[in-house]
Specification:
There is one protein chain. With about 220 residues, this protein is of the alpha/beta class. It has a single domain (about 10-205), classed as Rossmann fold (3-Layer(aba) Sandwich), CATH 3.40.50.1820. The chain has five helices and eleven strands; from the N terminus they run E-E-H-E-E-E-E-E-H-E-H-E-E-H-E-H. The chain has a seven-stranded mixed sheet with strand order 1-3-2-8-9-10-11, sandwiched between helices. Helix 2 packs across helix 3. The radius of gyration is 16 Å and the shape is globular. The termini are far apart. It binds D-malate (MLT). D-malate (MLT) binds near residues 29, 107 and 159.
Length: about 220
């Protein structure tokens, strides 16, 4: 029987460790559904991997929402696409029998993950945001209690101003998320430190989930 069509083109790899959270892998501008599979396998070897391709094309490069210029987002489209992505997550959860995933997003993928947290928090158990910035100029009222967020920023990142990443950490924190914001000596690209820190964070989260904890 052929695989039912879901609302995004995507790759899925089943997990083999029931304690490991499923990961929702969200690529950066110009990437696709194949890009972050290796990263997912590295940071969470037993996790199911769900990896959609962004539906927006910018000069032929897939993205998860439209932007007006670098770092200037079409916020109506951010809202629309975050809702579409959350709907896709629900479809994929039903089809593949998955718990709510932890998003692992890079750059544009991290930005849409932050928007999903803000707009459709039930879609995600938490998020690893690699080089993220504020996706919506006004954070909607949302309760992120029980959600863990790892935010990794580069000191030499030419795309993401340090104060913007700090603002995102503050917004998520005020909404009740448990935010771990680390600033690395890196640029916009990922470094080995990103991989190591993300792996440790996911592993700690998988075996001592934040849900229900009081810290
Ligand atoms: C975005 O457009 O989401 C950010 O500027 C990051 C990028 O994709 O370059």
């Amino acid at each position: 029987m052929s695989k039912p069509e879901l609302s995004f083109i995507y790759r899925f790899e089943p997990g083999h460790d029931p304690a490991a959270p499923p990961l929702l892998l969200l690529h950066g501008t110009g990437g696709d559904e194949n890009d972050l599979l290796d990263l997912g396998r590295l940071i969470a070897p037993g996790s199911a991997l769900l990896s959609p391709r962004g539906k927006i094309l910018e000069g032929g490069m897939p993205r998860f929402f439209r932007r007006l210029a670098e770092g200037i987002f079409d916020e109506a489209d951010v809202i629309r696409r975050a809702n579409e992505l959350a709907d896709f997550v629900a479809e994929a959860q039903a089809l593949h029998g998955l718990a709510a995933p932890v998003a692992v997003g890079f750059s544009n993928g991290a930005n849409i993950a932050a928007a999903v947290l803000a707009l459709r928090p039930d879609a995600l158990a938490g998020a690893v945001l690699l080089r993220a910035m504020v996706p919506l100029s006004v954070m909607p009222p949302v309760d992120l209690a029980g959600k863990g967020v790892l935010l990794l920023t580069g000191t030499q990142d030419p795309i993401i101003p340090a104060d913007n990443a700090a603002r995102l950490a503050g917004d998520l924190n005020r909404a009740g998320a448990t935010v771990d914001h680390k600033i690395l000596p890196a640029g916009h690209g990922l470094s080995q430190a990103d991989v190591d820190i993300a792996k440790t964070w996911i592993n700690r989260r998988a075996y001592a989930p934040i849900e229900g904890s009081t810290s």
